[in-house]
Automatic annotation (TrEMBL):
<dbReference type="Pfam" id="PF01154">
    <property type="entry name" value="HMG_CoA_synt_N"/>
</dbReference>
<comment type="similarity">
    <text>Belongs to the thiolase-like superfamily. HMG-CoA synthase family.</text>
</comment>
<dbReference type="InterPro" id="IPR010122">
    <property type="entry name" value="HMG_CoA_synthase_euk"/>
</dbReference>
<dbReference type="InterPro" id="IPR013528">
    <property type="entry name" value="HMG_CoA_synth_N"/>
</dbReference>
<feature type="domain" description="Hydroxymethylglutaryl-coenzyme A synthase C-terminal">
    <location>
        <begin position="173"/>
        <end position="447"/>
    </location>
</feature>
<feature type="binding site">
    <location>
        <position position="207"/>
    </location>
    <ligand>
        <name>CoA</name>
    </ligand>
</feature>
<keyword id="KW-0756">Sterol biosynthesis</keyword>
<keyword id="KW-0753">Steroid metabolism</keyword>
<dbReference type="Pfam" id="PF08540">
    <property type="entry name" value="HMG_CoA_synt_C"/>
</dbReference>
<dbReference type="InterPro" id="IPR016039">
    <property type="entry name" value="Thiolase-like"/>
</dbReference>
<dbReference type="GO" id="GO:0006084">
    <property type="term" value="P:acetyl-CoA metabolic process"/>
</dbReference>
<feature type="active site" description="Proton donor/acceptor">
    <location>
        <position position="245"/>
    </location>
</feature>
<dbReference type="GO" id="GO:0010142">
    <property type="term" value="P:farnesyl diphosphate biosynthetic process, mevalonate pathway"/>
</dbReference>
<dbReference type="GO" id="GO:0016126">
    <property type="term" value="P:sterol biosynthetic process"/>
</dbReference>
<feature type="active site" description="Acyl-thioester intermediate">
    <location>
        <position position="115"/>
    </location>
</feature>
<protein>
    <recommendedName>
        <fullName>Hydroxymethylglutaryl-CoA synthase</fullName>
        <ecNumber>2.3.3.10</ecNumber>
    </recommendedName>
</protein>
<feature type="domain" description="Hydroxymethylglutaryl-coenzyme A synthase N-terminal">
    <location>
        <begin position="1"/>
        <end position="172"/>
    </location>
</feature>
Length: 447
């Protein structure tokens, strides 16, 4: 098939949010979440919403807004790191949407591994369309997560969202699959071993280090593949934008700085003179030393700042405003780029870095083309309507946020309850949880 890629996208995030500045004041650590972690605001699910309701909302919205008949979907894959049921997939809940039209002929289930499931789902759909098994219909990828963390330093790293992406040929957002590179290994960096709790266990320091090591490894492999096929080296200058998995913005700044440092090590003349001077003293560090060096981190962030502002900053809006959306984070960063620059994206190359703890990572690149209505970049930006969705949010004070989190902790894994059904903050068309019955069966309604 020609130009297989993303035809259409939509995003949903809960209207309830807490400002990071209010939260850090509440926690008496002024500056840490905003300046230290680089975050602005954090969306969260109340008792009315979860990964299933958010994905029901976003899939329904995508089909409606792009005028796609639900019979035209032949494969649907869900990526999520949020566990509601250890067996029944989120995908099976989404089949309710297709029931009306009688379409039960849809392949695919859920992919789960940290924040990587969405990328696995995306690769599966792209591969399906490029394969002999393809039946001519669209693929649909759904990334849905509600990231909630225990009280303490991790709490500001939460977030929640669902993203749907329609996959098919002749797409405006196409894959350069030949350069795609992965790095997968075993690490106890972030995991969810306590099945009675929604919260992960995180080794913060290790988590940052393995993220940067995997980034290095993927980037080097990606560069090698590019050079082999294109006959010229890949350097940062070959791409217009870099989109990273974004648990918090400071890590994104560090990641881009790391690529700058790798470029400097591979080809010093490719970076500016000031960069060469500032980084020269770090060139003899071993790999391990370089991951631990705060001085290198600071110096490389400083010299990469100008390039960061043009090649990364336009991707940071939603991750900073919504928080860590786990599987949806990378694609929300990409959605931010479309929102900010859709009118000037045609012909541009975008490098994406997907990272799930455990650890599973891939780097791949996209090329933007004109597309045909309704599958154009400007229509995707219109449908996603990021500005209005951000404007319509309801800010909750930290005290209220803590109260809601306590209720959610109590409800996690529970049965035999009904929700308030107070949908006053939800936009029309939003799905919400109404009840979990005595057999743990979940019911949803649409506002
Ligand atoms: N004002 C301004 N800046 C501050 C302040 C303050 N009051 N306090 C701290 N900072 C800065 C620090 O200097 C540091 O900046 P730096 O990294 O540029 O040096 C930053 O804020 C974080 O401060 P730490 O002291 O390192 O904070 P802590 O030890 O509490 O750890 C965190 C922070 C984010 C919890 C980290 O340890 C962690 O766990 N990270 C990994 C978690 C994660 O989500 N990983 C992603 C894996 S994949 C996934 O998405 C699940």
């Amino acid at each position: 098939q020609k130009d297989v890629g993303i035809l259409a996208m939509d995003i949903y995030f809960p209207p309830t949010c807490v400002q990071q500045e209010a939260l850090e004041n509440h926690d008496a650590i002024k500056g840490k979440y905003t300046i230290g972690l680089g975050q602005d605001c954090m969306a969260f699910c109340t008792e009315l919403e979860d990964v299933i309701s958010m994905s029901l909302t976003v899939v329904t919205s995508l089909l409606e807004k792009y005028g796609v008949d639900s019979k035209q979907i032949g494969r649907m894959e869900v990526g999520s790191g949020t566990v509601i049921d250890k067996s029944k997939s989120i995908k099976t809940f989404l089949m309710q949407i297709f029931k009306e039209n009688g379409n039960t002929d849809i392949e695919g289930v859920d992919s789960r591994n940290g924040c990587y499931g969405g990328t696995a789902a995306l690769f599966n759909c792209v591969n399906w369309i490029e394969s002999n098994s393809w039946d001519g219909r669209y693929g649909l990828v759904v990334c849905t997560d509600s990231a909630a963390y225990a009280e303490g330093p991790l709490r500001p790293l939460g977030g929640a969202a669902a993203i749907a992406m329609l996959i098919g040929p002749n797409a405006p957002i196409t894959f350069e699959s030949k350069y795609r590179a992965s790095h997968m290994s075993h690490a106890y960096d972030f995991y969810k071993p306590n099945l009675a709790s929604e919260y992960p266990v995180i080794d913060g320091k290790l988590s940052q280090t393995v993220y940067l090591m995997a980034l290095d490894s993927c980037y080097k492999r990606f560069c090698e593949r590019f050079e082999k096929l294109e006959g010229k080296p890949f350097l940062i200058s070959e791409a217009d934008y870099f989109v990273f998995h974004s648990p918090y913005n400071k890590l994104v700044q560090k990641s881009f700085a790391r690529l700058y440092f790798v470029d400097f090590l591979r080809n010093a003349s490719s970076v500016e003179e000031v960069g060469r001077e500032k980084l020269a003293s770090f060139s003899a560090l071993s790999g391990d030393e370089s991951y631990q060096s705060c001085d290198l981190e600071k110096a490389s962030q400083q010299v990469a700042k100008q390039l960061y502002d043009t090649k990364v900053q336009p991707t940071t809006l939603l991750p900073k405003q919504v928080g860590n959306m786990n599987t949806a984070s990378l694609y929300a960063a990409f959605a931010s780029l479309i929102h900010n620059t859709h009118s000037s994206l045609v012909g541009k190359r975008i490098v994406m870095f997907s990272c799930g703890s455990g650890i599973t990572t891939s780097m791949f690149s996209l090329i933007i083309q004109d597309g045909q209505h309704p599958f154009t970049l400007s229509n995707i930006a219109t449908v996603m309507n990021v500005s209005d969705k951000l404007k319509l949010r309801h800010e909750v004070p930290p005290e209220k946020f803590v109260e809601i989190v306590k209720l959610m902790e109590h409800r996690y894994g529970g049965k035999d309850f009904v929700t308030t059904k107070d949908t006053s903050l939800l936009s029309p068309g939003t799905f919400y949880l109404t009840e979990v019955d005595s057999m743990y069966r979940r019911s949803y309604a649409k506002k």
